[in-house]
Each structure stands twice: as C-alpha cells, then as structure tokens.
C-alpha cells in the first residue's frame, strides 16, 4: 500500500469510504453533503487527510485518516486531533490503520506538535488496541466533557 496526502483530486475516491465511515457511527449517508464537507476542509486547509491506496490498483482506497490542527496553551505548541480513521471492510487485518497513523505521527513530528489526540467509542476494543500499539496512552490526567449545541 501507498500512503498519500489527499488533495481535491481525490474527492471522488475518498467520498464513498467517508460515507461508509459515517454510517459505521450511525449517521445517515448524505453523500453530497459529505463530499462538500471534505471539499471545504481541503480547500481551506482546515484538515490533513491521508489515504491508503492499493499498490496494484490506484483507484482502490483501503482506508483514510483525517486530522485537525489545534493548539495547547499550556505547552505553547501545536496539537493534532486524529478525528477520523477508517479502513474499508475488505482491507482490515492488513495494518492499514497502523500505516495511516504512522504517517500522521510523522507529520505531527515535522510540524513540531507536542502531541496527537484521538478518541473512540468506549466499546471499540479494536480501535483502542490499535491506538495503544502505536503509542497512544489513555489520558488519566484530564476528564473530557462535551457540550452539545442546539440549533433550534
């Protein structure tokens, strides 16, 4: 597999797998809105997306990850949020996620980041074990809270 940084040229390749990722987490597909969302992130430089492409078929996407930049006021450094990572069903158990996360980790180092953050559902044992194998540690210092914002 090859890991590449996504550009606008990859939207048609990325969107179907991004839609499957959203459906995996119980969201409705919305392919047009999903494509528009990804397009905005890439055009505005608001995220970095890595793609795992099959060596034997450049049009076969094995998986992707999307990172958002953030900052730490305490350390005065950049932080990357590994917000999305997904591997196609027929590409699992091929270390696709490992390769994607290694590339993300390399980019984090190159941009002088102090850390990467990731979260997953509490019952996603496979994801948790994969993150830990790359070197992520469970945060025992800070509790995380979410404030839903209603748009009624």
Compose a concise summary of this entry.
This protein is an alpha+beta fold. The protein contains four helices and five strands, in the order βααβββαβα.
Structure notes:
This protein has 152 residues and is α+β, with helices and mostly antiparallel strands. The chain has a single domain (2-134), classed as 3-Layer(aba) Sandwich (Aminopeptidase), CATH 3.40.630.30. Helix content is 35%, strand content 24%. The protein is built from 4 helices and 5 strands; from the N terminus they run E-H-H-E-E-E-H-E-H. The protein has a 5-stranded mixed β-sheet with strand order 1-2-3-4-5, with helices on both faces. A hairpin with a 7-residue loop joins strand 2 and strand 3. Helix 1 packs across helix 2 and helix 3 (96-110) crosses helix 4 (125-134).
Query: Which structural class should the secondary elements be placed in?
Result: alpha+beta
Order of helices and strands: EHHEEEHEH
CATH class, please? Alpha Beta
Q: Indicate how many domains the architecture comprises.
A: 1
**Helicity range:** 25-40%
Overall strand count: 5
Low-confidence stretches: none
Second-tier CATH architecture? 3-Layer(aba) Sandwich
User: How would you describe the shape?
Assistant: globular
Q: How much β-strand is present in the residues?
A: 15-25%
The named CATH superfamily: Gcn5-related N-acetyltransferase (GNAT)
Distance between the termini: 45 Å
Look at the structure and give the mean pLDDT.
94
Sketch the major β-sheet. Answer: 5 strands, mixed
């Amino acid at each position: 597999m090859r890991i590449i940084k996504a550009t606008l040229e990859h939207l048609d390749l990325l969107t179907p797998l991004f839609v499957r990722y959203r459906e995996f987490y119980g969201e409705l597909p919305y392919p047009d809105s999903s494509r528009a969302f990804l397009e905005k992130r890439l055009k505005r430089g608001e995220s970095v997306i890595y793609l795992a492409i099959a060596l034997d078929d450049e049009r076969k996407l094995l998986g992707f990850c999307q990172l958002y930049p953030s900052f730490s006021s305490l350390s005065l450094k950049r932080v990357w949020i590994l917000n999305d990572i997904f591997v196609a069903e027929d590409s699992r158990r091929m270390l696709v996620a490992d390769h994607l996360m290694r590339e993300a980790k390399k980019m984090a180092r190159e941009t002088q980041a102090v850390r990467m953050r990731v979260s997953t559902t509490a019952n996603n044992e496979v994801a948790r074990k994969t993150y830990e194998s790359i070197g992520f540690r469970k945060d025992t210092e800070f509790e995380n809270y979410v404030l839903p914002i209603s748009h009624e």
